[in-house]
């Protein structure tokens, strides 16, 4: 049994996963406290992780119905993420492992999003292309093997796709995080109402789109509910098409017909629908495996070389720049 911790941002997550990829518990405690600030406040996130982590670990064992003696490997997200937040889960995990002299596996957060595909019951295995789109990252990856190096085919030049959703939602007065709310508003709108840019070139770029929405809101009567729905629908369409266009091109160039989706934006209905239309072998994670969770970290830990006790005690976290997918 693998015990995994994920606290890279504002979700306090602990999971118990079998070596065969069976999820026995996947506890996610989301910190709603940040919503009124319009974004995650790093220091507050770290403090809440400290307050929540013991209870979340207890809840994971209770839900899985297993004892601590059944844990044979401990894993935690090492980065990238908010340093203070990462430290809480990472140190809790090291402490749990050290107390029992268990091996410890440090896991890269983005490798975790990819490894969500390897969990039961899907067990979607490489080779495949992966689109990881979250509030912090937008990456198109060529995953040749579970443990091998991963090639980055495209990344974002400015904002992440989830950030684009969140900023658009904010401009439309929908609160934070607004991706899902924007998508709900968009469902009542006509996506062909406004022509928003999809970005040029190989990489993703959402800064121009964001500015285009800002100017369009000033131009139209944004207090009209139908106009707002049309704005949301057109804006969502632009993000989805920007993602899909580059995915299609990469699938074509690489001559592969296997695609895995990951990250919070993978929860987006129109994106899932558009990708499903492509007729490729597709792994669309269930919603609780799209957004940040510790089951995906446990899954990735199976392909990481674990450190024996006490070799991991001095290991540190990283905010950015050190992971395999930098
Ligand atoms: O992976 P995640 O939980 O956290 C990060 O690692 O960032 O992703 C959160 C992001 C947020 O930007 C949120 O607005 C977006 O995923 N998101 C959505 C939807 N659900 C969550 N974006 C579009 N449509 C959704 N249904
Ligand atoms: Zn994430």
Could you characterize what this model shows?
- There is one protein chain.
- By secondary structure, the protein is an alpha/beta fold.
- Helix content is 39%, strand content 18%.
- The protein contains 10 helices and 10 strands.
- The chain has a 5-stranded mixed beta sheet with strand order 3-2-1-4-5, sandwiched between helices. Strands 8-7-6-9-10 form a 5-stranded mixed beta sheet, with helices on both faces.
- Helix 4 packs across helix 5 (179-186).
- The protein is globular, with a radius of gyration of 20 Å.
- The model has no long low-confidence stretch (mean pLDDT 95).
- Bound molecules: 5'-O-[(R)-(carboxyoxy)(hydroxy)phosphoryl]adenosine and zinc ion (ZN).
- Residues 9, 134-136, 162, 165-166, 177-180, 183, 263-265, 267-268, 291-292 line the site of 5'-O-[(R)-(carboxyoxy)(hydroxy)phosphoryl]adenosine.
Give the SSE map:
Blueprint: E1 2-6, E2 11-17, E3 23-30, H1 42-64, E4 73-79, H2 83-99, E5 104-108, H3 109-115, E6 128-133, E7 138-143, E8 150-155, H4 161-171, H5 179-186, H6 207-219, H7 225-254, E9 258-262, H8 269-276, E10 281-283, H9 287-290, H10 295-301
Parallel strand pairs: 1-4, 4-5, 6-9, 9-10
Antiparallel strand pairs: 1-2, 2-3, 6-7, 7-8
Bound molecules: 5'-O-[(R)-(carboxyoxy)(hydroxy)phosphoryl]adenosine and zinc ion (ZN).
């Amino acid at each position: 049994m693998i015990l995994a911790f994920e606290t890279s941002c504002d979700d306090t997550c602990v999971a118990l996963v079998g070596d065969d990829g069976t999820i026995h518990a996947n506890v996610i405690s989301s910190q709603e406290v940040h919503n009124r600030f319009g974004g995650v406040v790093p220091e507050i996130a770290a403090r809440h992780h400290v307050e929540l982590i013991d209870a979340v670990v207890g809840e994971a064992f209770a839900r899985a119905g297993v004892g601590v003696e059944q844990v044979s490997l401990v894993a935690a997200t090492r980065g990238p993420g908010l340093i203070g937040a990462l430290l809480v889960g990472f140190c809790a995990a090291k402490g749990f492992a050290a107390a029992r002299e268990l091996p410890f596996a440090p896991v890269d957060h983005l490798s975790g999003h990819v490894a969500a595909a390897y969990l039961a019951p899907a067990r979607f295995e490489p080779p495949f292309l992966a689109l990881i789109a979250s509030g912090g990252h937008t990456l198109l990856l060529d995953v040749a093997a579970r443990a091998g190096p991963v090639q980055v085919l495209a990344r974002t030049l400015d904002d992440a796709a989830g950030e684009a959703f969140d900023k658009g939602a904010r401009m439309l007065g929908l609160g934070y995080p607004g991706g899902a709310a924007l998508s709900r508003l968009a469902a009542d709108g006509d996506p062909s109402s406004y022509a928003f840019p999809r970005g040029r070139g190989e990489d993703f770029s959402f800064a121009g789109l964001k500015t285009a929405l800002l100017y369009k809101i000033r131009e139209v009567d944004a207090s009209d509910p139908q106009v707002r729905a049309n704005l949301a629908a057109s804006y969502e369409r632009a993000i989805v098409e920007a993602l899909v266009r580059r995915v299609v091109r990469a699938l074509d160039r690489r001559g592969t017909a296997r695609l895995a989706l990951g990250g919070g934006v993978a929860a987006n209905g129109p994106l899932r629908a558009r990708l499903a239309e492509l007729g490729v072998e597709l792994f669309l994670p269930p919603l609780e495996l799209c957004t940040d969770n510790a089951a995906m970290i446990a899954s990735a830990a199976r392909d990481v070389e674990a450190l024996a006790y006490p070799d991991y005690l001095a290991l540190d976290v990283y905010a950015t720049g050190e992971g395999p997918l930098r």
